[in-house]
Amino acid sequence: MDGLIQVAHAADVAATGKEGAWSSILLLVGFVLIFYFLLWRPQSKRAKEHRELVGSLSEGDEIVTGGGVIGTIKKIKDDFLVMDVASGVQMKVQRSAVAKVLPKGTIAAIDE
Q1: In angstroms, rounded to a whole number, what is the distance separating the alpha carbons of residues 73 and 28?
Q2: What is the domain partition of the chain in residue ranges?
Q3: pTM given for the model
Q4: CB-hemisphere CA count at 13 Å for 110?
C-alpha cells in the first residue's frame, strides 16, 4: 500500500513540474523584455544621438561641455577641439566632452 502512495505522490510532482517550468521560462522572458525596454534600448539610443552630435560639430558652433563650460569652437582636430571661452581665453577639450550644441547667438544673449 505504501508503494501506491509514493507512486501517486511522484505523479503529482511531475505534473506540477511541467507547469512550473513554463512559468519560470515566461518569468525569465518577462525580465529580459523589461531589461531591454527600460535599460538597454534607451541607453543605446542616447549613445547614438551623442555620436551623431559629436560627428556633426563644426567651427563656429556654440557648445556646452559636460562640465557646464560654454564656448565657441575655433578649431577641430581629430578627437580634440579648441573652444573660445572668453576673449583671448581658449580651452582644449575632447570632442566626446561636448554635451549640447547651442543655437547661434546664445552666448551673446547671456553676456548682455
Answers
A1: 49
A2: 1-56, 58-111
A3: 0.68
A4: 12
